[in-house]
User: What shape does this take?
Amino acid sequence: MSLPWYHTTTIYQIYPRSFYDSNGDGIGDLPGILQKLDYLHELGFETLWLSPFFASPQKDFGYDISDYLSIAPEYGTLDDAFCLIEETHRRGMRIVFDMVMNHTSDQHPWFLESRTSRHNPKADWYLWRDQPNNWHSLTGGSGWRYAPERDQYYWASFLPFQPDLNYRNPDVKRAMLEIVRFWLSRGVDGFRLDIFNVIYKDAEFRNNPLKFQLIPSVDNPSGFFQEARYNLNLPESFLLAKELRQVCDEFGPKLTLGEVSGKREIIRKYLGETENDGLTLVFDFAMLNFRFQADYFRRLIADLEAAYPAPFMPVYVFSNHDRRRSMTRLKGDARKARLLVTLQLTVRGVPCMYYGEEIGMTDLPLPFHSALDPLPHKYRFVPRFVFDLLGLTINRDDVRTPMQWDASPNAGFSSAPHTWLPVHPNYRTVNVAAQQADPGSLLNTVRAILALRRAHASLREGTLQLLDGLPAQVLGYTRQVSEERLAILLNFGEQTCAFPFSTGQVLFRLTPEDNLEAGAARLAGLGGLIVHFGS
Ligand code: NOJ
Assistant: This one.
């Protein structure tokens, strides 16, 4: 059996602005990423996903693109992007860009032209209406904005400066697929697809039905008292997934990872019905709100196994540039973080790790009023603690602080007097250099398990079987391919526990006390074992 590379790979997400600043302006850049490629290679990740670095007014830090074929000057040049692709490949790794197909910046020449009048060559490239309907944007409130030039309203699924393109216009689709082809022809290995689930809207702009739901949920992300029936997960979006897949296939096997949300049985449709002929992967965001309990993960794994059987593959993601960091959710407990990454890197799925997660970086709570992220400004009259209580990240600056490389000023991220966002003050102890020197660190745990994953086909390609009859606090599963079988045992409790278990060769232990001897496993609190059976 041999699965396509995009179903066996491991993904590391880089937020370029915060990764490494090579020219001392306080902002991370592409040459900075280039300088850190060896770090990523040695750590063992196989695929890099870069958040957007294209020309942009940076009102949403690159998720508002004004030219898809040039690079924002603070990040570098086109040549830097080509060089990064080449150097990543030279190390046997892959690189995936972030495609924001749903919307452009309101400063994109397409939109500037579109808004000038009702009759211009781009008049129909965006969604214009004489009157708004009742739809809510993903950030709350009406997503319609008035443009006096046309005496009409345009639709923006996210924030008002991010107008949605009209994919019912074949010229729009053609233009965007040409951009996709441009990057594929330059060697990019695929794309993460920004809010792909809202890309088509109802052709008749019917009003959404009302629903009592105060806070958006993963199932109904534009919540806010309505069901997003006519602006989310339309059948045409599933078809576009297939069309995009065909374009990618012109260039060989490419990864397409959809940022989609909605009910699990619906988001599955982006992958294809029985064949995986749509997107190759989708995020399943419910797990970003994980609870650190064996039972929670047992259910999650069972549900994902049922939802993404072969030839599909689930994605395991616990942090990203929009949501609370996993270490914050774990209240800074490195033992729990080590257990969580052991799970993430050994379960059947593609793991996607956010930069800094490998050293346990935590959120830095920053005030709303001075936020660089545009989102908190929309909610400036609501006190921050309300969102904290609801577990919502509104100021995404909190999770985008500079990477913590070492204990030198600015955590070794930049030589500038000021970095674009403050460095988390915990950088003196939480940093790459310190953890590299500590064999039991989170960083070295990630490295060790990634190495095991490369060495054992069962971890990359094997089937998964949940184990029954273990103590309630222990999560256990096996991974198997042909004769090779591995068992993973994880103790989510604080108490040591012992139970009968077949003897095999211990490949990895989370704590020195974790052991397998004479037909019994013994796991320390928050301990774990990876055991090898068979050839
Ligand atoms: C989702 C991205 O993850 C987020 O960062 C961005 O602000 C919105 N899409 C709009 O593009």
